[in-house]
UniProtKB/TrEMBL annotation:
PANTHER family assigned: ACYLTRANSFERASE, PROTEIN-CYSTEINE N-PALMITOYLTRANSFERASE RASP
UniProt keyword annotation of Transmembrane present: yes
Transmembrane segments: 32-51, 72-91, 136-160, 181-204, 216-235, 351-371, 391-409
Primary location class: membrane
Location in the cell: Membrane
Highest taxon of the lineage: Eukaryota
Gene Ontology BP terms: triglyceride biosynthetic process
Protein name, UniProt field: Membrane bound O-acyl transferase MBOAT
Pfam families, A to Z: MBOAT
Length: 422
């Protein structure tokens, strides 16, 4: 019976794939195609979640008993990534038909890696494919590509299709093997953390409410580091097998979570492939930086709804957007104001360090609210830090984050000196 339920859920996917492919083939040359593409996929995404992957009972009460044997694999959760791939295929095919987006000389920046004669991911993504290469078999292969099907990383259709004929040559066999060894070390680290540190146990059981302000901060910070390591393991595992198969994808966790002092930097290094997807297929079509103060609200609202239909995720998205506003204003002001004196540079650096400490604090609050304790838990946490015994702890935490931000500035300066041309 579980096999019957699994088969039923799997039959729905090729049907929806075929329907979308036909619609894209018919309407790809029209100007309203992006609106139709987004509307169709968002409605289907919502229906999958609202009806929990659908059930046998919709065909009649006599089949209702089969819903008790649906198994543990929830196809509609993994289908969220398939929706992103369908939108990617639709846009890349639409742009190739209009010949209005792909211009290798204008849109592709030749990096140092490309100058070595290797075809990097950016070149593969921005190079338009021929119309006859967008067949249904290639489209289906892209949607259900096994190494990346469950959790990504997300790869654009152009980048995927170009590597079927010419596998990636960016990473050598030695690089891929070392990548797998590093993943094994990370796995051993998370096993060690799970056995020695009980951050998640405190959060899940609710015992963190009984802790002191110092302990609450340690638990909250530990949970965020555990989440980073957990997702790093998940994404690097699937990326490793994709590299073994000759398909290069974006590294989802290129930097450690403790090396991010701005929201922009954080979102470029946390689920980086999704960030690139959002910029390419959502942020830029909406107007890009010309409407950035409005676009971030639209983008993060979609991200929250894409993850799940929960109020705590919407609160996370809107808190992130709210915290994003001062950073964008400060960045715009610093770009417009040119500092010439040494004192001005020192003052600007101190302001950036202070804003970095504020950003890290806000980032912790937003992520804890969205993924750990919820909005009500954040209210309780903030009130505990504003008490008499909590204010010195809050000051110490803020000072520590300020010093950490200045240390990250120093590391960034050292890297720029190392990589700068002599």
């Amino acid at each position: 019976m579980e096999l019957a339920s699994f088969t039923f859920s799997r039959l729905q996917q090729p049907t929806s794939f075929l329907l979308r492919f036909i619609l894209m083939q018919v309407f790809a040359r029209t100007k309203y195609f992006p609106f139709m593409l987004w509307t169709f996929n968002i409605i289907f995404l919502f229906c999958n979640r609202i009806y929990e992957g659908y059930s046998f009972s919709i065909f009649g009460q006599q089949f209702e008993f089969l819903d008790n044997f649906r198994g543990t694999f929830r196809w509609h959760i993994c289908f969220n990534f398939v929706v992103l791939r369908m939108i990617s295929f639709g846009y890349d095919y639409h742009w190739s038909q209009l010949d209005s987006h792909f211009d290798q000389e204008k849109h592709v920046t030749r990096c140092c890696l490309c100058k070595l004669g290797k075809t990097c991911y950016v070149v593969r993504q921005e190079r338009g494919l021929a119309s006859d290469s967008c067949s249904f078999s290639l489209y289906l292969c892209y949607l259900v590509y096994a190494p990346l099907y469950l959790a990504g990383p997300i790869i654009s259709f152009n980048a995927f299709a170009s590597q079927l004929d010419m596998p990636q040559n960016t990473h050598s066999f030695k690089d891929v093997a070392w990548y797998g060894v590093r993943w094994l070390f990370s796995f051993l680290l998370i096993e060690l953390m799970t056995h020695l540190f009980y951050y998640n146990a405190f959060v899940i059981s609710g015992l963190w409410r009984e802790l002191s302000p110092v302990e609450i901060f340690i638990v909250g910070y530990g949970v965020l580091n555990f989440m980073w390591l957990k997702f790093l393991l998940l994404w690097r595992y699937f990326r490793f097998w994709s590299l073994v198969n000759g398909i290069e994808t974006v590294e989802n966790m290129p930097n450690c979570i403790n090396n991010c002092y701005s929201l922009e930097t954080f979102w470029k290094t946390w689920h980086a492939s999704f960030n690139r997807w959002l910029i390419r297929y959502m942020y830029i079509p909406l107007g890009g930086s010309r409407r950035k103060f409005l676009n971030v609200w639209v983008v993060f609202t979609f991200v929250a709804m894409w993850h799940d239909l929960e109020w705590k995720l919407l609160s996370w998205a809107w808190l992130t957007c709210l915290f994003f506003m001062p950073e964008m204003l400060l960045k715009s002001a610093s770009n417009a104001y040119k500092v010439e004196s040494a004192f001005g540079e020192f003052l600007l650096r101190e302001l950036k360090a202070l804003s970095g400490a504020v950003t890290i604090t806000c980032l912790m609050i937003a992520n804890l609210a969205g993924y750990v304790v919820g909005p009500s838990g954040i209210n309780w946490m903030v009130s505990s830090f504003l008490k008499r015994e909590g204010v010195p702890v809050l000051g110490g935490v803020f000072f520590s984050l300020y010093v950490g931000t200045k240390l990250m500035f120093h590391i960034q300066d050292l890297r720029s000196r190392v990589h700068s041309p002599k």
